[in-house]
Amino acid sequence: MTNSNSLFFRALNKEGLKTPPIWYMRQAGRYMPEYRAVRKKFNNFLDMCKNPDVCCELALQPINAFDLDAAILFSDILTIPDALGLGVNFVENEGPVFKNPINNSKDIDNLNIFNPDELKYVYQAVTNIKNSLSNNIPLIGFSGSPWTLAAYSIEGKSSKDFKKTLNFINENTNKSHIFLNALTDACFLYLREQVKAGADVIQIFDSWANILDENRFNEFSMQYINKLTYALKNDKVTSKTPIILFSRDPKCNNQTLVNNSGADCLSLYWNMQDFDLNIARNKVSLQGNLDPRILLEPKDKIKYQTHKILDKFKDYPGYIFNLGHGITPDINPDNIKYLTEVVREY
Amino acid sequence: MTNSNSLFFRALNKEGLKTPPIWYMRQAGRYMPEYRAVRKKFNNFLDMCKNPDVCCELALQPINAFDLDAAILFSDILTIPDALGLGVNFVENEGPVFKNPINNSKDIDNLNIFNPDELKYVYQAVTNIKNSLSNNIPLIGFSGSPWTLAAYSIEGKSSKDFKKTLNFINENTNKSHIFLNALTDACFLYLREQVKAGADVIQIFDSWANILDENRFNEFSMQYINKLTYALKNDKVTSKTPIILFSRDPKCNNQTLVNNSGADCLSLYWNMQDFDLNIARNKVSLQGNLDPRILLEPKDKIKYQTHKILDKFKDYPGYIFNLGHGITPDINPDNIKYLTEVVREY
User: Fold this and answer.
1) What CATH number should be reported for the domain holding residue B134?
2) Residue B217 maps to a domain
3) Which residues, at least 6 apart from A311, have a Cβ–Cβ distance to it below 8 Å?
4) What per-residue confidence (pLDDT) applies to A1?
5) Which of A212, B96, B121, B313 is such that its CA lies 20 to 30 A from the CA of A23?
6) Do A113 and B227 touch (CB under 8 A)?
């Protein structure tokens, strides 16, 4: 078991710390030359995710390079839609493309039943990473939120406006809820297996929360996040596992996120600068909030913006340093090193 | 593994046999004094089902007493609703009574997510029974059908007309489908674990098929049986496991059962005397059909009616001898012994 005195666990436990624990969303990724050297051995990105030894190597790269306070499973949130038979491919410069997206309500009837054993390669990766980490570095397992997985599965690819998805849930509201329920059950079983395999913390990525207005966010996204966290908190295997929710710029009030999500920690998107710390204090830990674009600026600007974030969270009980979104491929690894130093020396 | 040359497997493989394999629905039950001796040690029937050693003892009792050709897991179909948090109790002379039945659509939103690990006691019972059986006696695992589990969960108890359930599915059709989907996923995961634990054959009990008219039967029951058998037939663990469907007097034509259920064998209710053997021939095996009430009659009548059934299925490729419903507590075990002899000596 991971030492519960690790900085990351202490922050998740809502303890005020002089120096926050540090990890970065997408800390293993294309911005690192070590990563690109491995990536080019695989045509299809998901094939790489299906190799537990490679996932282990990739997850450890940023830990070794930057001495971070938490590792995260190397995988992709689309493993579940892939297991449901939707045929996920990653196309260069386009992101994920589904061979069999959900086009009509009949497609929902015809979906495979989710079988958690089909994603054994993920659980094996978790175990391999856990066995390779030192005792004081917790390992984060993850899944997409039910809504985000549904949006990808219906849209069939990434999109700016997710028009097809929004039309679909309007026209097929009941079937959409059937789909979201099935995805919620799948996420639960999937995260549970990750915890069994060695994950110490769970992060749920609601990466497409932003495309829903407030009413629809509550109906199609938050309702299922709540059901999922409730199940995790009431299960023998996962009840003690802290849950972090990354919700990308949701159109709901802060109170809803704090009170209804069931998460122990909220990971704040970079544009959520007005998030009211007082309503969250002593209820949830907070994570992130730094605009990753800052890392494309000169060092003095990186330092200035980082200090602003650290000033803001200085007295907050339980803050985890992170970006407000994932590291992009255009960021120089030296700046990640520098950013980490700035936080530790603050 | 069980010898695939066993009579039971040969019949499931649609082989015409001189003597059919024999087992009886509810072959372990209150009609046996050995069973009653164990039963009285437990207040609650489900507590008995949660004891794998006791389940093993009970499952073996009829095998030892009557030298039957197949064993069946000792358990109850309501283990799944119990795991979903509906609080199942068995009340003397009343049957199952739910503490928290589904009363409105909100209750469906609030249901626990099914976690197959909560029913480990069932899988342990399967393993214990399998380890205690000789190699040539296959073991049948089972679950209720999604519809039958839904009907019990909504009605909250057994009923003649299931009025509450029929009203509920009329007034909450969409939520009912959400519930049926969740139950289908649960049945799949549950049966899969039973096969992993050692079950050689699966039987699905659609015990409340009879309360639906033809349209509703297809919409609320058959659709989900089809989804379940499709999942089982496409899963690595269960694809080779024969599936028997017991559908109690369904209001659909025989063709639908044969072609749409996805089952390898249909277990015929006692009143399905006009079932057209020709449309089933070489497509599915058949099982049962004898009226269990016959067993309350004198021996000559038992013999006469049994011969009538055996005459009917004499040339049918793949017939399994069984009753058209479970053995009732009022039946004399001597008549089960006699019935078995009549079939073997035919």
Assistant:
1) 3.20.20.210
2) yes
3) none
4) 54
5) A212
6) yes
Tell whether B239 is covered by a domain: yes
From the candidates A31, A35, A152, A269, which is the catalytic residue?
Answer: A152
For residues A43-82, b (16+ Cβ closer than 10 Å) or e, as one string?
Answer: eebbebbbbbebbbbbbbbbbebbebbbbbbbbbbbbbbb
Residue A45 located in a structural domain = yes
| Euclidean distance between CA atoms B123 and B272, whole angstroms | 33
- The whole-number average pLDDT for the span B39-49 is 94
DSSP sequence for A320-340: EB-BSSPPPTTS-HHHHHHHH
pLDDT tens-digit series, residues A269-319: 999 999 999 999 999 999 999 999 999 999 999 999 999 999 999 999 999
Domain that holds residue A193: 7-345
Q: Is B171 on the interface with A (CB under 8 A)?
A: no
**Residue A2's pLDDT band (boundaries 50, 70, 90)?**
low
A–B interface: beta-carbon pairs under 8 A: 55
- Residue A2 forms part of a structural domain: no
pLDDT digits (tens, 9 = 90+) for A157-210: 999 999 999 999 999 999 999 999 999 999 999 999 999 999 999 999 999 999
> Nearest by CB to B174, which of A174, A228, A231?
A174
Q: How is residue A196 written in tokens?
A: 């069994």
d(CA B88, CA B68): 31
Residue B37 CB coordination number (10 Å): 10
Three-state DSSP at A29 gives coil
The answer to whether B273 faces chain A, any CB pair under 8 Å, is no
The answer to whether residue A339 scores a pLDDT higher than 60 is yes
Predicted pLDDT of residue B150:
98
B174, B181, B237 ranked by CB distance to A182: nearest: B181
Task: Write the ipTM.
Answer: 0.82
Contact A177 B182 (CB under 8 A): no
Work out how many domains chain A is built from and give that number.
1
